């Protein structure tokens, strides 16, 4: 029988991963998702063909892999409701919650669990996700492979040995699709100011990002060299890049990424106090 995967929570991130999994060949009937809202469940069930239920404990009882995908603020209550099933079935737990540390979640689940913390991102929906993973010391090599296979089905997987680095992963990839979406908004607005139709400006900006990302991923050159290759001396790009450097884009990006990681640490401190 296929590995049974249960998602507790069927929101943005869970549906992005589930959508990516079903598109990459995972059998829909091996996936179950739970949520309190039956309309939301009916929608995701109809869209993705997966099993759905509002009964968290029952869904956990039959899981080989249990993905915790609720908001961090709800995690304590949800885990405590799952503890009995988890203690009996002993699935591999994968938490995708920002901030919350493995020991806290394991404690809420009654302790002694093999637990992987994963920080994914929403491009998982189109098979272009990027996830950072950390395993606690109860996770076997076979379970590590299971977690790798699961998340590799929806994109890039990078393991970290130090759990605190997941806050950096959150800042550099988990939250980062939003940084690029902000950039697309800004580029579209600027293109419109120059007279382009909005949809043309949007398509050009998005395709350029896709092209630049694909090129940077495949090239033997680093991003600084690729950037230099676009900049003809005295030309247009040089002027644009100088403007961005003068506006201190690097500093703004560094501030944003440090603030994001700091917020993840803050959330962990706030929420683990409830242990
Ligand atoms: N969004 C993102 O880009 C990323 C999110 N994450 C993490 O993923 C987790 C989920 O975030 P996101 O998907 O954005 O949040 P959403 O609010 O979109 O999804 C949360 C889901 O949990 C459901 N839910 C609420 N209460 C319960 C309950 N008691 N039992 C079962 N399900 C419940 C919600 O249902 P309802 O809508 O009815 O309340 C909803 O389906 C968070 O911990 C976040 O830190 C990690 C990486 C990226
Ligand atoms: O904004 C958040 O808290 C979540 C975690 C990473 C992306 N979204």
Automatic annotation (TrEMBL):
Occurrences of domain Pyrroline-5-carboxylate reductase catalytic N-terminal (ranges): 4-99
The pathway to which it is assigned is: Amino-acid biosynthesis; L-proline biosynthesis; L-proline from L-glutamate 5-semialdehyde: step 1/1
Q: What is its main location?
A: cytoplasm
Q: Which domain of life is it from?
A: Bacteria
Q: Which reaction does it catalyse?
A: L-proline + NADP(+) = (S)-1-pyrroline-5-carboxylate + NADPH + 2 H(+); L-proline + NAD(+) = (S)-1-pyrroline-5-carboxylate + NADH + 2 H(+)
Which EC number(s) are documented for this chain? Answer: 1.5.1.2
Query: What UniProt keywords apply to this chain's record, in alphabetical order?
Result: Amino-acid biosynthesis, Cytoplasm, NADP, Oxidoreductase, Proline biosynthesis
Citing just one GO molecular function, the answer is: pyrroline-5-carboxylate reductase activity
All copies of domain Pyrroline-5-carboxylate reductase dimerisation, residue ranges = 163-267
EC supergroup of this enzyme: oxidoreductase
Q: Where in the cell is it found?
A: Cytoplasm
What the entry lists under InterPro entries is as follows: 6-PGluconate_DH-like_C_sf, NAD(P)-bd_dom_sf, P5C_Rdtase_cat_N, P5CR_dimer, Pyrroline-COOH_reductase
Function, as annotated, reads:
Catalyzes the reduction of 1-pyrroline-5-carboxylate (PCA) to L-proline.
Write down the NCBIfam families for this protein, in alphabetical order. proC
Q: Which family does it belong to?
A: Belongs to the pyrroline-5-carboxylate reductase family.
- Under which name does UniProt file this protein? Pyrroline-5-carboxylate reductase
């Amino acid at each position: 029988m296929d590995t049974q995967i249960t998602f507790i929570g069927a929101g943005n991130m869970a549906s992005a991963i589930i959508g990516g999994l079903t598109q990459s060949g995972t059998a829909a009937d091996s996936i179950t998702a739970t949520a309190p809202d039956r309309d939301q469940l009916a929608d995701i069930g109809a869209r993705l063909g997966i099993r759905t239920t509002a009964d968290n404990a029952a869904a956990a009882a039959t899981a080989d892999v249990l993905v915790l995908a609720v908001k961090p603020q709800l995690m304590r209550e949800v885990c405590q409701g799952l503890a009995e099933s988890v203690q009996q079935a002993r699935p591999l737990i994968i938490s995708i919650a920002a901030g919350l540390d493995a020991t806290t979640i394991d404690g809420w689940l009654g302790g002694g669990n093999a637990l992987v913390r994963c920080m994914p991102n929403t491009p998982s929906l189109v098979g272009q996700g990027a996830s950072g993973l950390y395993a606690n010391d109860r996770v076997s090599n076979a379970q590590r492979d299971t977690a790798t296979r699961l998340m590799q089905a929806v994109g890039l997987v990078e393991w970290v040995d130090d759990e605190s680095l997941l806050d950096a992963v959150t800042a550099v990839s988990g939250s980062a699709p939003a940084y690029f979406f902000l950039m697309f908004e800004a580029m579209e607005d600027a293109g419109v100011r120059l007279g382009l139709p909005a949809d043309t400006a949007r398509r050009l900006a998005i395709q350029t990002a896709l092209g630049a990302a694909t090129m940077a991923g495949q090239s033997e050159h680093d991003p600084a060299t690729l950037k230099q290759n676009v900049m003809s001396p005295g030309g247009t790009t040089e002027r644009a890049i100088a403007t961005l450097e003068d506006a201190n884009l690097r500093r703004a990006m560094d501030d944003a990424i440090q603030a994001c990681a700091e917020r993840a640490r803050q959330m962990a401190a706030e929420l683990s106090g409830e242990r």
